[in-house]
Amino acid sequence: MASANNTRISLTNTAAEPNRRARKRPQPSVLNGVSNSYEDRNTDFLCPICFDVIEEAHMTPCGHTFCYKCITTGLEYNNRCPKCNFVIEKKENVYPNFLLNELITKYKQKLADKKLKSQGQNEVASELQDLMLQEADNLDLTDVYSMLEILSQKKQQLEADCKAAKIHLLKEFLQQVRKHKQEQMDQLTVELNFIDEDLKSVQDSESSSGASFQGYSTVPLQQDGSGDTMQDGFNGSKHGTKHQWLQNTLSSRRKRVHLHFDDLEQCYLTARSRNLDRSSSEGFEEFTESLSKFTRYSSMRPLATLNYASDLLNGTSIVSSIEFDKDNEFFAIAGVTKKIKVFEYATVIQDIVDIHYPVNEMVCNSKISCISWSSYHKGMLASSDYEGTVTIWDAFTGQRIKVFQEHEKRCWSVDFNKVDTKLIASGSDDAKVKLWSVTQDHSITSLEAKANVCCVKFNPESRFHLALGSADHCVHYYDLRNTKQPLGVFKGHKKAVSYVKFLNTSELVSASTDSQLKMWNINNPSCLRSFKGHLNEKNFVGLATDGDYVACGSENNALYIYYKGLSKQVLTFKFDVVRNILEKDKKEEDTNEFVSAVCWRMGSSVIVAANSQGTIKVLEMV
Fold first, then answer.
1. What is the pLDDT of residues 232-263, one digit of tens each?
2. Which CATH number fits domain 53-121: 3.30.40.10, 2.50.20.10, 3.40.50.10330, 3.30.450.20?
3. What molecular function does GO assign, one term (predicted)?
4. How far, in Å, CA of 597 to CA of 593, rounded?
């Protein structure tokens, strides 16, 4: 009972004094009184067992170092390393760490010298104080004045030294600031010089163009009712239309320039600075082309809509690959429904109603990961699937020409060589790239990678050069005549590389699940440019390029278009979420749909893109 009352009293007291807090136990100090990690810069010399400076450093087979006494005592109770739990069978399996012992000896000597110096300074001050106390009664006024004069002189000297040190430090700081600002001013002067040069060049070009087109004034003609109405009407209509078009296109392009001004400015300065030692017009022309192409298109116009899945209730209709044939007349669509559907582009565009039927349909045994058309044979199409099978089809008869089944795991990618049109490459989760010929029943050779191969792509102008993207976060570039070592390894991505596409014979772009695209030159291991804006953390979202523009999907169910000369997106197109009966109440932000495949119709501004619901959009940049 007494115990219960005591408990109640204790709780009452606690409730009555809410502001009282328990005093924290002070942290133990280590290393001669250094109690925080900011001051302690030698924690490598601490024993993980006793938390003191290591005595007689000995190392375990796993590489960790302890005091000899600490580790031998610890192994008597447990035969595992205190740091990593590595099993140490015998106490004799610990070895002296001579190098660390030497470093610790030097460190201890340094600490001792520092302590001795501190003690010496304190002893001098203490002796002076003791002397003054002992002789205080024997000092007369003259002695006191003499001592005060000495101390005053010492004070003045210390103050002067302190002021000199302060002035010297301030001088050094201001010199560094001036140097930094001078460098900035020099850089600005250089930039202003080539800006003035380029501006003069543009003004000269504008003057010459104006002189050439004097007969085509953009000023609307006045309607004065005179006898020249027929001629004025004819010219007025022509010039007025031209004037209106010029104003509209300039207004639209100005908006895009202002929207991306910082990125454009950086692109211009980089291009011009890089070419200062070469022709003055080279960098300027490069940026002129970038600016023109960056501002050329303002939106994306849907031309047609198709559906990959025939069953509207089917929730797994992801389109994994879209490809045009060599003449851009037909395009094939493949995905997880195990079907390859071939459509005629002209028919799809001309149909008034968005109900489109394929000219042919092929059914595979497994989910399809990738397809590739032959650049020579009109109807020859290759596919790879989740079972590791590579199949060669006649796309117009639906017949299998060849079936290759040598991959041991899922095959992610397949690609026809554009120079040697019989050659095919495939990449798989078995960390192998296999080369095939349409005239042979087995693989020609196999290239061993160190990690899962997510994508393969031939150089468009070479029969021997191949790029592959891997789960090791790198792009590897090989000469197939010597596969022992890659010609180049391009590092920079933070996650697996899911796609690789060539912009031209020397430049390629890679996509990764780190939400970045990166552009590379095959002769330079450094990244030329990173493209950011889309979201891609876990899915294959597609990648395509026409040589200047790069299209990719995003996990926010949108298509993103980049221009190779700038890091930010030029255009985006958002897919609508198609709901079935079971998901009619689901909010748009709750959906996990993503754009899963992208393809460019070469020689045009048309892109075909599809999302994870099986919706395919034929889009045109305008």
1. 444 445 555 656 767 777 888 888 888 888 88
2. 3.30.40.10
3. zinc ion binding
4. 12
